[in-house]
Amino acid sequence: MSAQPAVSTSASPSAAPPTQADLLDFVRHTAADAELISSLPLDPEGRTWVRLNGPGGSEAWLIGWPPGSGTGWHDHADSIGAFTTAAGALRENSLAARLPTDGWQTLELTEGVDRERHLAAGQGRSFGRHHVHEVLNASPEEHAVSVHAYYPPLPRIRRYSRSGPILRLEQVERPEDWQ
Q1: Eight-class DSSP state of 110
Q2: Phi/psi at 49 (5° precision)
Q3: Fold of 2-173
Q4: Are 82 and 151 in contact (CB under 8 A)?
Q5: Is the pLDDT of residue 10 over 50?
Q6: How far apart are CA 50 and CA 144, in angstroms?
Q7: In 3-state terms, what secondary structure has residue 57?
Q8: What is the rounded CA–CA span in Å between residue 23 and residue 34?
Q9: Do 52 and 148 meet the contact criterion of CB atoms below 8 Å apart?
Q10: For residue 134, how many C-alpha atoms fall within 13 Å in the half-sphere facing its CB?
């Protein structure tokens, strides 16, 4: 992954923290900015990103996804979030189950918790705290670009491995690990 400098958008701080709906509105509006989306440098080998100024002090990112790339299973801890595909298409695999927030290393998931969403350009979603998912560009030949926003700014990301129904906590990352 290669980082780019922050880009300012037309977000202004507000008195109340942004809601999931506010974040979704922001990512949808930003994803519709063709000039911004086309300005993201794309790398055929790895994801690229530019930090954006999100609404109400949120953290936001413009992310480029080369063909076949993905995040792996993770969550955003205590942050709510939203993302929208701006170009190409993404797939989100998620768990429809509330997991314990701390104090575990391995969980056996029950049947029926897996969810899959296909998000073409212009489609997005929001999610609450402790949402476990992975995001993938399943295309073998086309880059995808997306816009993401989180509030509060990401305090940590927990990364998981998955083998069948077994979910294992592998790593906890802090902001200094990815900025």
Answers
A1: P
A2: -155, 155
A3: Jelly Rolls (2.60.120)
A4: no
A5: no
A6: 14
A7: helix
A8: 19
A9: no
A10: 16
53-66 mean pLDDT: 97
Tell whether pTM > 0.85: yes
DSSP E strand boundaries for 59-113: 59-65, 73-75, 80-87, 89-95, 106-108
Which tokens in the block code for residue 104?
């575990």
The long-range contacts involving 168-174, CB below 8 angstroms and separated by at least 24 positions, are: 168/105, 168/106, 168/107, 169/104, 169/105, 169/106
Give the pair of three-digit tokens for residue 8.
């300012």
pLDDT at residue number 142: 97
From residue 103, give the alpha-carbon distance in Å to each of 94, 116, 173.
21, 27, 16
| In the block, residue with structure tokens 């949120």 | 58
Residue given tokens 């037309």 in the structure block: 10
Q: Which residues contact 77 (CB under 8 A, 6 or more apart)?
A: 101, 129, 130, 154, 155, 156, 157, 158
Q: Where exactly are the structural domains of the chain?
A: 2-173
Q: List, for residues 106-120, the tens digit of each pLDDT value.
A: 999 999 999 999 999
Cis, peptide link before residue 13, omega less than 30° from 0: no
